[in-house]
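Query protein
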Amino acid sequence: RGLVGSEMCIRDSRKAVKVSVLNNSEVVGLADDLSKKMGEQGWGAGETGNAPEEKMGVWEKTTVYFDPRNEEEKAAAEQIAHDNGWEAAPRDDRLRDAPAGIVVVATDPAH
């Protein structure tokens, strides 16, 4: 079945959404791997890096963060979380130095 109207718009709009990924695990290369996965799902590539425990704490589950004042970002974050079995949540103070936009904080295992 080919893409129709709204499906095409959704796929095109995903590229415009930049998704950054921060690694909060000891798995080397996890942020890069998940960034590639986001690209395969049609999302735009944001930054990759680490979310070191000593600076940012420990996340129990991989979580997709969004700006609570941005409804489009919230909807995209919820879709990413749903598609990957993760959680979505509004950004908090731990991410004050993180890249703008949607940020996935990845734990082990994040797949």
